[in-house]
Protein backbone atom coordinates (compact mmCIF):
# COMPACT_ATOMS: atom_id res chain seq x y z
CA UNK A 1 0.00 0.00 0.00
CA UNK A 2 1.38 3.45 -0.81
CA UNK A 3 2.72 5.49 2.06
CA UNK A 4 -0.21 7.19 3.74
CA UNK A 5 -0.06 10.64 5.23
CA UNK A 6 -2.83 12.61 6.87
CA UNK A 7 -3.25 14.85 3.82
CA UNK A 8 -4.39 12.02 1.56
CA UNK A 9 -6.99 10.50 3.85
CA UNK A 10 -10.41 11.83 2.93
CA UNK A 11 -12.44 9.36 4.96
CA UNK A 12 -11.67 8.25 8.50
CA UNK A 13 -9.42 5.20 8.39
CA UNK A 14 -11.81 3.23 10.58
CA UNK A 15 -14.30 3.34 7.70
CA UNK A 16 -11.91 1.80 5.23
CA UNK A 17 -12.04 -1.96 4.84
CA UNK A 18 -10.10 -3.75 2.15
CA UNK A 19 -11.21 -7.23 1.26
CA UNK A 20 -12.59 -9.59 -1.27
CA UNK A 21 -15.90 -11.27 -0.65
CA UNK A 22 -16.90 -14.81 -1.58
CA UNK A 23 -19.16 -17.65 -0.57
CA UNK A 24 -18.13 -21.17 0.34
CA UNK A 25 -19.55 -22.33 -3.00
CA UNK A 26 -17.39 -19.80 -4.88
CA UNK A 27 -14.25 -20.96 -3.04
CA UNK A 28 -15.19 -24.56 -3.78
CA UNK A 29 -15.57 -23.82 -7.50
CA UNK A 30 -12.28 -21.92 -7.55
CA UNK A 31 -10.41 -24.81 -5.89
CA UNK A 32 -11.98 -27.28 -8.35
CA UNK A 33 -10.29 -25.41 -11.21
CA UNK A 34 -6.95 -26.63 -9.80
CA UNK A 35 -8.03 -29.85 -8.05
CA UNK A 36 -10.89 -31.26 -10.15
CA UNK A 37 -11.73 -34.10 -7.74
CA UNK A 38 -11.86 -31.77 -4.70
CA UNK A 39 -14.89 -32.24 -2.46
CA UNK A 40 -16.02 -30.35 0.61
CA UNK A 41 -18.43 -30.92 3.45
CA UNK A 42 -19.12 -28.16 5.94
CA UNK A 43 -21.60 -27.13 8.57
CA UNK A 44 -21.84 -23.43 9.46
CA UNK A 45 -21.40 -22.66 13.16
CA UNK A 46 -21.93 -19.55 15.29
CA UNK A 47 -19.48 -17.57 13.14
CA UNK A 48 -21.96 -17.62 10.25
CA UNK A 49 -24.19 -15.19 12.17
CA UNK A 50 -21.21 -12.84 12.47
CA UNK A 51 -20.49 -13.06 8.75
CA UNK A 52 -24.18 -12.56 7.94
CA UNK A 53 -24.10 -9.25 9.84
CA UNK A 54 -21.39 -7.81 7.56
CA UNK A 55 -22.26 -5.66 4.56
CA UNK A 56 -22.91 -7.57 1.33
CA UNK A 57 -20.21 -5.53 -0.41
CA UNK A 58 -17.58 -2.97 0.45
CA UNK A 59 -17.00 0.16 -1.59
CA UNK A 60 -13.24 0.62 -1.89
CA UNK A 61 -13.45 3.62 -4.24
CA UNK A 62 -12.32 6.05 -1.52
CA UNK A 63 -9.27 3.90 -0.73
CA UNK A 64 -8.46 3.82 -4.45
CA UNK A 65 -8.78 7.60 -4.67
CA UNK A 66 -7.12 8.58 -1.37
CA UNK A 67 -4.46 5.90 -1.07
CA UNK A 68 -3.96 4.75 -4.63
CA UNK A 69 -5.18 1.26 -3.68
CA UNK A 70 -4.60 -1.31 -6.39
CA UNK A 71 -6.22 -4.69 -5.85
CA UNK A 72 -3.70 -7.47 -6.48
CA UNK A 73 -5.87 -10.45 -5.55
CA UNK A 74 -9.16 -11.82 -6.75
CA UNK A 75 -10.64 -15.16 -5.71
CA UNK A 76 -8.69 -17.20 -8.27
CA UNK A 77 -5.38 -15.55 -7.38
CA UNK A 78 -6.10 -16.07 -3.67
CA UNK A 79 -6.89 -19.74 -4.37
CA UNK A 80 -3.64 -20.24 -6.28
CA UNK A 81 -1.59 -18.71 -3.44
CA UNK A 82 -3.53 -20.64 -0.79
CA UNK A 83 -3.03 -23.98 -2.55
CA UNK A 84 0.67 -23.28 -3.07
CA UNK A 85 1.12 -22.45 0.63
CA UNK A 86 -0.80 -25.55 1.72
CA UNK A 87 1.33 -27.69 -0.57
CA UNK A 88 4.49 -26.17 0.91
CA UNK A 89 3.24 -26.89 4.43
CA UNK A 90 2.52 -30.53 3.55
CA UNK A 91 6.02 -31.24 2.26
Q: In what range is the share of β-strand residues?
A: under 5%
| Count of separate structural domains | 1
Main sheet overview: none
Structural class: mainly alpha
Average pLDDT, to the nearest integer? 80
Which descriptor suits the 3D outline?
extended
Discrete helix count: 4
Number of strands: 0
Following the backbone from N to C, one meets helices and strands in this order, namely HHHH
Q: Termini distance?
A: 32 Å
How large is the radius of gyration?
Answer: 17 Å
Report the oligomer: single chain
Helix content: 40-55%
Helix/strand layout:
Layout: H1 24-32, H2 47-52, H3 61-67, H4 75-90
Helix pairs in contact: 1-4
Concise account of the structure shown:
This protein has about 90 residues and is mainly α. Helix content is about 40%, strand content about 0%. The protein has one domain (about 5-90).
Account of the protein in words:
The chain is mostly helical and 91 residues long. It has one domain (6-90). Helix content is 42%, strand content 0%. It has helices at 24-32, 47-52, 61-67, 75-90. The longest helix has 16 residues, at 75-90. The chain is extended and about 40 Å long.
Amino acid sequence: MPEICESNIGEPVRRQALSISFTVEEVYESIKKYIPNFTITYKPDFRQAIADSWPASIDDSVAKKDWGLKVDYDLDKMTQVMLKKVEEQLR
